[in-house]
Specification:
about 150 residues, alpha+beta, 4 strands, elongated
């Protein structure tokens, strides 16, 4: 019964905390957000398993991580250069149908990845139909077709 109560308490606490901190859709989750979720999972493990018998300590760690994440997002909002440094910038991979190979290599993206997104999102069949292909900060590829 103790494990059920602990799990319930942590579940409700995390549910409330994530509702307060704001939502992101799964497609918008960044690598750091994923790592943060893994760290939170590891922090809650001790509280759930009862290794140190301290749900309070696990909750404190989780609150600290979430507060730090919110503070960092607010910092990036008020100091735009910090957001550029921490999150990166979108990168043009194709311009007027021409692949920019040096950028593609740097981003570890090949023509197949770009064409897959072009077919899926815009129904395009050839590279020369793409005005711009942009690797977004989220890792998604945006396709702008030629008129």
């Amino acid at each position: 019964m103790d494990a059920v109560l602990r799990a319930g308490a942590i579940y409700i606490f995390l549910l409330l905390l994530f509702r307060i901190s704001g939502r992101r859709t799964l497609s918008e989750i960044t690598t750091f957000d994923f790592i943060l979720l893994l760290i939170i999972g590891e922090a809650t493990q001790q509280g759930l398993l009862g290794d140190d018998f301290s749900v309070t300590n696990a909750l404190l760690v989780i609150v600290t991580l979430i507060v730090m994440d919110i503070a960092l997002s607010l910092f990036k909002e008020y100091v735009p250069i910090a957001g550029k440094l921490l999150d990166g910038m979108p990168m043009v991979l194709v311009e007027n149908g021409q692949p920019l190979r040096d950028r593609m290599k740097k981003a570890r993206v090949d023509e197949y990845d770009i064409m897959e997104e072009a077919r899926r999102a815009q129904g395009l069949e050839r590279m020369d139909q793409i005005k711009y292909a942009v690797l977004e900060v989220s890792g998604a590829i945006s396709i702008v077709p030629k008129d």
